[in-house]
Amino acid sequence: MAFNNIFGDNEEIRILECLIENKNESLSINEIKEITDIKINIIRKYINFLLKEELLNDKSVNVDIFYTLNQENLIVKIILLLDTIIIIKKLCDNVV
User: Fold this and answer.
1) Per-residue pLDDT averaged across 10-18, rounded?
2) CATH of the domain at 66
3) Burial tier of 35 (Cβ tally within 10 Å: 0-12, 13-18, 19+)
4) Of these four, 48, 57, 80, 92, which has the most CB atoms within 10 Å of its CB?
């Protein structure tokens, strides 16, 4: 949970962090709800925004839709790099 330390603890940041922490997983809206404890309608609204901006990929399996970060998108690449930098900085701060 690196981003909420910098950008504050709001629902969009918690959803984004959930997707970052599970960047190699496909998550349904219900799974995101379980992880973040955010109302489904808020998750759907933000997921739709991320899809529109091409920051997410979606995949339908039966009646479920699963979402993953679009790691080919430049903005997502920058977000993931920033997350890594924040984590490294925290680790270095703890060593000193």
Assistant:
1) 93
2) 1.10.10.10
3) middle
4) 57
**Number of structural domains the chain divides into:** 1
Angstrom CA distances, 67 to 3, 5, 38, stand at 20, 25, 16
The candidate with the shortest Cα–Cα distance to 67, out of 50, 45, 42, 84, is: 50
- Tell me which long-range contacts 37-42 makes (C-beta under 8 A, separation of at least 24): 38/11, 38/14, 42/11
The vertex-95 CA angle with 91 and 96, nearest 5°, equals 120
